Amino acid sequence: MVKNILFVCIENANRSQMAQAFANIYGKGSVNVFSAGSRPSGAINPKAIAAMNELGYDLTEHSSKSLDEIPDIVYDYVITMGCGDECPFVKAAHREDWNIPDPKNMPPEEFNKVRDLIKEKVGKLLGEL
Fold it and tell me: What b-and-e string marks burial along 33-63, b requiring 16 or more CB atoms within 10 Å of the CB?
């Protein structure tokens, strides 16, 4: 059965976008993946685009969205990326907060460490489904 997963952060420009990308790559056919932000920036961070390009994924196909722009369903998993009270309640069977630091202002090397952490966590999540 296909699972619905939502990744949430504040701006929907970095962490949740990369998590959505990894879930699309590694969960193809077994998950429907969404991402959104509590206060979306309206644009994907160029650093996130560059970091994912290094792995062969084109984030320019994504868009920064608000929680109002995603389907109003009960998600199988809602994963918040460390936004605490900034992430409002979304209906979900399972909820997790990964408490991942916001890489927005990090230099590329540090940004890529956050990207790799997200990749590892998404892989583990998909392995548990």
Answer: bbbbbbebeeebbebbbebbeeeebebeebe
Compute the average pLDDT of residues 66-91: 84
Percent of the chain with pLDDT over 70: 95
| Structure-token match 């961070």, residue found | 45
Q: Order the strands of the 3-9 sheet from edge to edge.
A: 31-37, 3-9, 75-80, 92-97
**What average pLDDT does the structure give for the chain?**
92
List active site positions.
9, 83, 87
The Cα–Cα gap between 115 and 23 comes to: 13
Residue 123 has pLDDT above 70, yes or no: yes
